[in-house]
Write a structure and sequence with these properties.
Elements lengths: L2 H33 L9 H33 L3 H24 L5 H7 L2 H13 L15 H20 L4 H9 L2 H18 L7 H17 L11 H10 L1
Helix pairs in contact: 1-2, 2-3, 3-5, 3-6, 5-9, 6-8, 6-9, 7-8
Organism: Rhizobium pisi
Keywords: Membrane, Transmembrane, Transmembrane helix
Protein name: Transmembrane protein
């Protein structure tokens, strides 16, 4: 998937999300006013259930699905799917509960929103913006400028994946339910606090995670800097090649 087409699908996904989060509530209110069902107790419940209970979550899931599939196709086009595909999938899984929450309650106070904001969502947003760069126009590949940059980006991504797993409240319940292993839920629930303590280095803040996020952003930005042009071969090297021929 070319960068322009990827940008188009990302904008479509964001547009669907904004429409579902901000536009369906006024539509629900307008529909109730037009039907005049508020005068009868329980008469508006089917309409509210249809729009707010089915249509709104469905649009949110469609928006997330569009972004997820477009990201995987873009990674496949750039030959980055084998490593960054699973990483992006974990970012999406970790960010989905927050997206569902914020779409259901757009009037939530900013302190509550910031307290629930997953770091994985910030990594995901940064990576999606990075994939919009038209690498194919310059016949280059992402993160090919330096092996050090590739290593730093992958280490930051691995840290973010571990942080997403450590701070995901529903991970233990979901893992046990999907694999039908109740004991796994207990193991994950017991391991998560230790993993959290290790990732934040024993502190009570998410400052280490945000520091890794800054490193990730800086690494991606540095990979976009123009590389120094390769030195032309020396005259003696050219003459030697001619003699060999």
């Amino acid at each position: 998937m070319f960068a322009g087409r990827y940008l188009w699908w990302v904008l479509i996904g964001i547009g669907i999300f904004i429409f579902a989060a901000l536009g369906l509530d006024p539509i629900t209110w307008l529909t109730i006013q037009l039907l005049g069902c508020e005068e009868m107790a329980g008469a508006c419940e089917p309409t509210i259930r249809l729009i707010s209970g089915m249509l709104k979550p469905g649009c949110i899931w469609i928006a997330i699905g569009v972004l997820f599939v477009a990201t995987l196709v873009r990674l496949h086009y750039l030959s980055l799917l084998w490593f960054w595909g699973p990483v992006a999938a974990i970012w999406f899984v970790a960010a989905t509960p927050f997206l569902l929450f914020i779409s259901a309650d757009m009037a939530a106070a900013w302190p509550v929103v910031l307290a629930m904001l997953p770091v994985a969502l910030l990594f995901l947003a940064t990576f999606i913006a990075y994939l919009m760069v038209p690498f194919e126009d310059a016949d280059t590949h992402p993160l090919e400028a330096s092996a050090t940059l590739r290593l730093a980006a992958r280490l930051a991504a691995i840290y973010s994946v571990l942080a997403a797993a450590a701070f995901m409240p529903a991970l233990s319940r979901s893992a046990g339910a999907l694999l039908d292993m109740p004991a796994l839920s207990v193991v994950v629930a017991l391991a998560q606090p230790y993993l959290q303590t290790m990732l934040i280095f024993g502190t009570d803040s998410m400052a280490p995670a945000y520091a890794v996020l800054v490193l990730f952003i800086a690494t991606l930005a540095a990979s976009l800097l123009p590389r120094a042009a390769a030195r032309p071969p020396a005259r003696s090297t050219i003459m030697l090649r001619r003699l060999r021929r």
